[in-house]
Automatic annotation (TrEMBL):
Keywords assigned by UniProt, alphabetized: Coiled coil
Coiled-coil regions listed in the entry: 49-118
Highest taxon of the lineage: Bacteria
The protein, known as: Peptidoglycan DD-metalloendopeptidase family protein
Species of provenance: Herbaspirillum rhizosphaerae
Residue stretches of biased makeup (Basic and acidic residues): 277-300
Spans annotated as Disordered: 277-348
InterPro entries registered for this protein in UniProt: Cell_wall_metabolism_enzyme, Dup_hybrid_motif, M23ase_b-sheet_dom
Amino acid sequence: MLRQHIRQLALQHIQQPWQLRPASAFSAVVAAVFLSAALWQPSASAQQVTERTRQKQAAEKERADLQQKLANLKRDIDKTETAKGNAADSLAESEQAISKANRSLRELTQEQADTEAKLGVLVKQQSELSGVVNVQQAQLSKLLREQYVAGNEDRIKLLLSGDNPNRINRELQYMGYVSQAQARLIETLRVNLQAIKDNKAATQNAKFELEEIAQEENEQKKLLEKEKAKRSTLLAQLSTKLTSQRKEVGNLQRDEQRLSGLVDKLAQIIEEQKKAEAAAREKRRQEQLAKAKAEHDKRVAQQAKAAPGTKSKPAPSDAIDDDEAPQSLGRNDATPSPEENFGKPFASLRGQLRLPVRGDLLAKFGGKRGDGPSWKGLFIRAPEGTEVKAVAAGRVVYADWLRGFGNLIIVDHGNQYMTIYGNNQSVLKRAGDLVKTGDVIASAGNSGGNEQSGLYFEMRHQGRAFDPLGWVTTR
């Protein structure tokens, strides 16, 4: 009986050769550790296509449809133009390029800061992982060395010693626990080595991204200087013509009509989009309702089949109330309304807004523009490059050049409220971007042929301009 018990234990452990043959186990495990250590070394052929590049390509693809809609809208407005030879149009290309270069530089600066922060975190993680791996390798080396020194005979001598079977079994179990601990340590070490490899790949990717950003920044700076020089030359050539055209009543009226037409068309597009989203939500709700009813009918049929001859009554949880279903189904995928998206409704912010830029107020709402139409907004004089901030949260619906207003940005705040920021040196947001109160959306300038550097600011509701000074606080 004792002999059979010992033979069974021996066969059980012989099936785990690395436990019974520490010398060969030592070689095998060391080889495994050295093979795993290869994971520690960064790949020589690091992937050059960075995650940043892939994200940028995806973002540009998503933005293309919206840009096409705005381009079509702009073409429709241009078709109604009768004015020819407007001097400001000659500046359009260079002012748009300056705006684009400044926006790209700002985005690259933010991206660079984010990437450097990410790189710092990765370096810290790498250091911590390396410390853990060093400790684990030292522990494993010590265990393997002790096992090798002990030799192969311990377990065999124990099995053939004729000692108490209970003691033999207990000792073998202890040895098994030690072997399992070694296996777990090796597995943990392997996982940590893989983590170090992944960390090194991510770190290398972040360094590639920083190199890309630095290269793009250099290109954008060169482009910016080139376009600024080009615009200065054009301004000098067109100075007299611009001065005379600024004072023409017809030009001022056409500028105002152009902006009003743009706002009306944007409001129409926004309403159409809301209707399309509402129709899509209703369609999803109907599909979900139909699916829920089908599942309910299927359960009822199964119950009737399982208990023939008895009238099946649906459980309360299976019952569907047509009046309540619309509120409960599809709510999670509904597109939020502007108020839900942006916080407080815009109308409740009256008297709490701040002017978008600090500076001297040169023109007020309702004031006369010489012999031309009255001002529909404010003109705030400010040095070129001064930050222009969104007065409230909303969504950018237009960010482009418009005759008479230069680089223009329009923000929709919901419920047909819009704010308009014109004559900017640069627009720093793109159409479709969400903005929060106080976000920098542009930089002040004198684009569009304006003689003063600053910001033209309008507020509109249902397409009609109203006095911003009744809504802002100067605190």
